[in-house]
Amino acid sequence: MVNEFAYCRRLFFLEWVQARFADNDDTVEGRYRHRAVDHEGGRAPLPSDGDLRRTRSLLLSSPRLGLVGRIDIVEGSAGGLVRPVDIKRGRPPDNAERSWEPERVQLCVQGLLLRDAGYTCDEGILYFAESTTRVTVPFTAELIERTLSLVAEMRMVAASDVVPPPLVASPKCPRCSLVGICLPDETNALAARSDAPPRRLIARDPQSRPLYVTEQGAVVGIRNNRVEVKRDGELLDAVRLIDVAQLCVYGNVQISAQCIRELFAREVPVCWFSYGGWFAGIGTGLPSKHVELRRRQVAMAGQGGLPIAQAIVQAKILNSRTLLRRNARTDVKSVVASLKNMADAAARADSVASLLGIEGAAARTYFEAFPAMLRPDRSLPGGVFEFDGRNRRPPRDAVNCLLSYLYGLLAKELTVVTYSIGFDPYLGFYHRPRFGRPALALDLAEEFRPLVAESVALNLINNGEVSASDFLVRAGGVALTATGRKRVLAAYERRVDDQIRHPTFGYRITYRRVFEVQARVLAAHIVGEIPSYVPFRTR
Nearest Cα to 184, choosing from 536, 534, 526, 517? Predict the structure, then answer.
């Protein structure tokens, strides 16, 4: 952590104070390079008990310094001198010291720990694995003074509730594993600390994807690092564990205890849905250690959270307006103008109650015009799209059936994202807390309902991806068949994998990543890093 603090104070705060971490290629390769010295080996007698020749993975602490460290290798020589050897993954830099300051102060801490344990230690070694180069670092008075100064500053930063600001346009950020959590350029842009356009620094989407199990009576288990889906002993499917981002089960599907335990150990959430697609619950491992975010979330929600709710509702209305303007097959100019006025009214609302009224009126106006975006020649249950506004529980036509199912998927997606960041997904700012309702996830889902859920429903219908045979009508209610659900899930996954240009930051990312970015922007506002929440509003 002394190394991290010297490299970037914000990185130290995220990792040490907020206990947040993410891997990238460099961290994974670094662990691989360290594999030979991660296991303790070799004798390590105290100076009074004999000479230390060579030992691996030596853990030392110093009550005087208040520091603990594990040293990769300690080499001894005649006369009782010892040297710590720190393994680095790359090559030495081309500078006078042939090393960077964070590496030198980390090594100096190890030397100070050895001194406090009674050893004689005047220098250390940085071993760069890629080039098999050893660089000697003498523990000069200047280096020791700099190291102790950083340790004192580190304690002050750790004791504060305020996360240090990101580095501005730093070349360090692109290779940082926490760049997708930190969002340095985005935070600096929203906080008006930089005029430069944000770089696209966040990592590409992982290769893993949600695994949906809709087969009734199926059992999900794990074997040889593969998630297996069986029914009546017959193997239906097997997916590599590393390829599973979420496990989503519908209806009467069982999951073995071993599978749940392994998924939780890998931070893979399990989402339960009713047979018809109602999002029923989520299971994860231990909750996020980001207590400060939840504390401030509770405080802000207690104050009402009106500005956040206004931004969310205004974005939802404007995104609905954009979808209607782009896809309407008849004249909807009056509706488009009305939605614009309602979006402006949402920005001026003086209470959440009045905001609810504005949002409700906008939804009615929008859904009255929704059939204008549908092909009139497509016949599905409920007539030739006799769509008379939203209805549910159960939906009475195919359009509402699709929308309800897709809204459930969207709520699931945002619940998973809010959990992973450290929010309490059940405490929102627009949707009031209620038993079993992920209010914050529903808040964030609002601005994406038109762009993701309703867009997918339109494509499914207008492109002929679903037909009457994909729906089941019972007692006036309409539900998806097993085949219909699979088609909707496939279309939804395609949509969230679509790349779009972020309207605020300008770079292209998938909707899947946009969900995370927006949740992190909200988190940055809640902890006081940026002045307001900036919703996702398509142009």
Answer: 517
The residues with which 472 forms a beta bridge, in sequence order, are: 479
**What is the pLDDT averaged over residues 247-265?**
90
Domain count, the chain: 3
Interval 228-245 mean pLDDT: 89
Q: Which residues of 199-230 are buried (b: 16+ CB within 10 A; e: fewer)?
A: bebbeebeebbbbbbbbeebbbbbeeeebbbb
Asked whether the predicted pLDDT for residue 388 surpasses 60, the reply is no
- pLDDT at residue 38 in the model: 77
For residue 166, cis peptide bond before it (omega within 30 degrees of 0): no
CB 412 within 8 A of CB 248: yes
Q: Which two tokens stand for residue 102?
A: 């964070």
Look at phi and psi of residue 233 and say left if phi exceeds 0, alpha if psi is from -120 to 50, else beta.
left
Shared domain for 421 and 487, answered yes or no, is: yes
In this structure, the answer to whether residues 306 and 242 fall within a common structural domain is no
Report the chain's C-alpha Rg in angstroms: 28
Mean local confidence (pLDDT), 169-196: 87
Residue 3 pLDDT exceeds 50: yes
pLDDT digits (tens, 9 = 90+) for 74-122: 998 877 799 999 998 888 999 989 999 999 999 999 999 999 998 999 9
Q: How many angstroms separate the Cα of 150 from the Cα of each of 12, 109, 147, 166, 500?
A: 12, 11, 5, 18, 42
Q: Exposed, middle or buried: residue 171 (CB in 10 Å: 0-12, 13-18, 19+)? A: exposed
What pLDDT shows up at residue 210? 86
Do residue 367 and residue 274 come from a single domain?
no
Choosing from 258, 283, 308, the residue where a domain stops is 283
* Residue 383 zone, left/alpha/beta (φ > 0; ψ -120 to 50; rest): left
Could you tell me the CATH number of the domain that includes residue 474? 1.20.120.920
CATH code for the domain of 47: 3.90.320.10
Q: What percent of the chain has pLDDT over 70?
A: 96
Residue range of the domain that includes 483: 291-526
Residue at 539 is within a domain = no
Task: Name the residue type at position 50.
Answer: G
How many whole angstroms separate alpha carbon 409 and alpha carbon 45?
60
Q: Once rounded to an integer, what is the mean pLDDT over residues 12-27?
A: 83
From 249, 283, 317, the end of a domain falls on 283
What is the average pLDDT across 448-477?
Answer: 86
CA gap 111, 175 in Å, rounded: 28
- Global pTM? 0.81
Q: List the helix and strand counts (H, then E) for the chain.
A: 17, 17
Do 357 and 496 lie in a common domain? yes
Dist. CA 314–CA 322, nearest whole Å: 12
Q: Which of 516, 527, 504, 517 is nearest to 190 (CA)?
A: 504
Query: What is the chain's mean pLDDT, rounded?
Result: 86
